[in-house]
Design brief:
The protein has helices at residues 11-22, 39-42, 60-72, 157-167, 186-194, 286-304; strands at 2-7, 27-30, 48-49, 58-59, 80-81, 86-91, 96-100, 104-112, 118-121, 135-136, 149-153, 172-177, 198-201, 203-211, 214-221, 227-232, 234-237, 241-244, 252-253, 256-258, 270-272, 277-278. The protein is of the alpha/beta class and 314 residues long. Bound molecules: flavin-adenine dinucleotide.
Length: 314
């Protein structure tokens, strides 16, 4: 029987695994993707993070590598199962069954660090989109855009951050947003103009086709309704992710898990933290999730070992 099963191996689940080793808890981590790191490695690996303690700036993927190396330094590390998705958790008398795409596991406690959930990218929605070569929905390696004409679609943080990164290596970068106002940090939007990125606001994408290695986009000005075409080498779509709904039987609000002051969900001994939770004053960033998980792992150690003098420093 496992002491703990951690569901989701983003930064918060991974740090939960490190702390579980320090507390000598036995368990496993289950991650549906083929890599650890959650949003940092899937959505913005090349972005410089500047709000983590101890780093002037660090690329998202490098921060995950640092956590991974800390995880690997532990002899009693919790095995991480990649490419395995948790489908359901089932309460038994005084333990839980965790049902996955591959197996069913028994555990005394559960930690849900499922972030945005299992997600897939939102497509443009054009009929022939899937037949087009060189259209991408995530960016794990900016160097593929070197000396290319690139069009980024979207108006949120990831579209803007990635446009700025791509522009450092691309021949030209154009960002097309369907609205006037970007949903990204104002300073980053300003930086796009300063760095020569072509910004097209209030345009919809009406068509896409391919001529040899070039992509041709038909766009429509939403005000004048005039259509025009643009040619490029690559299109990067950043319309966000569509989370697939999990069926975990815990109380939720707007699809986020409700927790009490100890980050316990509506089920006993099932805890949740990181981007998946909601409570008054919740902030969805890395450092908040890391703080939450440290409280939870201490609490779980108390539950598993009620007579132990639980360490708070190591
Ligand atoms: C573009 C962008 C820039 C950002 N920049 C910053 C920044 O500069 N600083 C900062 O502090 N924060 C930043 N954030 C926010 C930060 O990424 C999140 O706060 C953080 O990723 C939350 O971590 P998490 O572990 O809770 O969730 P996630 O990173 O979402 O990880 C959850 C993991 O759980 C897995 N999972 C989900 N459901 C299942 C299941 N049923 N079975 C198995 N596995 C499952 C997912 O595949 C995923 O790997 C940014 C976010 C974005 C989108």
């Amino acid at each position: 029987m496992n002491d703990i099963i951690i569901i989701g191996c983003g930064p918060v689940g991974l740090y939960g695994a490190i702390l579980s080793s320090l507390h000598n808890l036995k368990g496993i981590v289950i991650e549906s993707l083929n890599q650890i790191g959650g949003q940092l490695t899937s959505l913005y690996p090349e972005k410089d993070i500047i709000d983590l303690p101890g780093f002037d700036k660090i690329k998202a993927k490098d921060f995950i590598s640092k956590l991974e190396s800390q995880y690997n330094s532990k002899e009693n590390k919790l095995p991480i199962h990649l490419n395995e998705s948790v489908l359901d958790i089932i309460k038994e008398e005084d333990y839980y069954l965790v049902k996955t795409t591959l197996d069913t596991y028994e555990t005394k406690t559960i930690l849900l660090t499922t972030g945005m959930g299992m997600f897939s990218p939102r497509l443009i929605g054009l009929e022939n989109e899937k037949e087009i070569k060189n259209i991408f929905y995530s960016c794990s390696d900016v160097s593929i855009y070197k000396d290319k004409d690139v069009i980024v679609l979207g108006g949120g943080d990831s579209a803007v951050d990635l446009s700025l990164l791509i522009n450092k290596v691309a021949k030209s970068t154009t960002i097309i947003h369907r609205r006037n106002d970007f949903r990204a940090q104002e300073s980053s939007v300003r930086k796009m103009s300063e760095e020569g990125i072509c910004i097209l606001r209030n345009y919809s994408i009406k068509g896409i086709d391919q001529k040899e290695d070039k992509i041709r986009l038909t766009i429509k000005d939403n005000e004048t309704l005039k259509e025009s075409t643009l040619t490029c080498d690559n299109v990067l779509v950043q319309y966000g992710q569509i989370p697939s709904k999990d069926s975990f039987p815990v109380e939720k609000e707007n699809n986020l898990i409700k927790v009490n002051d100890y980050y316990q969900t509506s089920l006993p001994n099932v805890f949740a933290c990181g981007n998946i939770v909601t409570y008054k004053g919740k902030v969805k960033n890395i450092i908040t999730g890391l703080g939450e998980v440290s409280l939870i792992i201490t609490r779980i150690d108390q539950i598993i070992n009620p007579t132990k003098n639980i360490p708070i420093h190591f």
